[in-house]
């Protein structure tokens, strides 16, 4: 039986070269952008939740117990940089910890924010100045950088707001606790991004304004590469990929009786609130070994040339793999890891199966009717 994967080895090399050149071009564009994220000496981590343990947004912390302690970022990571001197502050006044998670394929960022404050200031809102304790996050899902609140080249403030503010990077002013049942003010022209299903939230606390106490805030947001005032129909959700880096930071505005104590932020630069170039590097971590099967066949495919019925298959299996066997559903097979196969008969749905084998055993995964040529 002829192995189609082998017969198309040269074509596979051409495709690989084209992919490498495209990656190189994108890398050069990225480096030529001329910006580096804040705290370039440190890379933060975003925990990947297993799909069967996605956090339930209910204000309870039980779902987060599986997150290792080194994913927790506390008071020691933030500084008051509003006045430019980078002064630290006392944990007796405010003590916080933040965890961030994601689920592969879901394109959401999950947050658990816990804070102990000696004076919770909430229930009031002044349009000329916030008088509510706030947990503020800014996110740049595609790491495009640059200002995302105010573009100095757009002189008209109305045009600036509706065409630029928050379009390629988003800022969320999250009230802790909420004001008049409003959990978040979006600093941008797209308030819909703070509404379900693009976001969801839950609080747990037991204190009155002016009292001390412990607050739990659990929520998720959806980062966007492109989010406009017109609504989600024309928006582009950021595609979160394993091991990729995104721009993210948070800031805490702590009021005590209307007087703001400071602007405590993770980036150690207050510019993070309106310019994605000052965010921090956060890596979307892979699933930890304890949640993975010893061996599991996984694969994807991409149409290389539909007119010639040529399909590229990519092995995405987990575990130590020693052999691969592809069955293409047309009577032919391949033992290559990533074969390129040319189907002879057009207009057919094919059942393609990958079987992998290793020290931990065997695993098979099929896709029924996913692969079709015309």
Q: Total number of β-strand segments?
A: 22
Indicate the CATH class of the largest domain: Mainly Beta
Distance between the termini: 24 Å
- In the CATH hierarchy, the third-tier topology of the largest domain is known as Immunoglobulin-like
> Number of helix segments?
3
Strand content is 35-45%
Form type: elongated
Properties at a glance:
374 residues; elongated; mainly beta; Immunoglobulin-like; 13-stranded mixed sheet; 22 strands; 37% strand; four-stranded antiparallel sheet; disordered N terminus
3D architecture notes:
The chain is mainly beta and 374 residues long. The protein folds into two domains: 35-288, Immunoglobulin-like (Sandwich); 293-373, Immunoglobulin-like (Sandwich). 9% of the residues lie in helices and 37% in strands. Strands 1, 2, 3, 4, 5, 6, 7, 8, 9, 10, 13, 14 and 15 form a 13-stranded mixed beta sheet that branches. β4 (94-102) and β5 (109-117) form a beta hairpin.
Summarize the structure.
The protein has 374 residues and is mainly β. It is built from 3 helices and 22 strands.
Topology:
Layout: H1 4-7, H2 9-32, E1 44-48, E2 73-74, E3 79-80, E4 94-102, E5 109-117, E6 134-140, H3 157-163, E7 170-179, E8 182-186, E9 199-204, E10 213-221, E11 224-226, E12 236-237, E13 245-256, E14 259-265, E15 280-284, E16 299-305, E17 310-315, E18 323-327, E19 333-334, E20 340-342, E21 348-358, E22 361-373
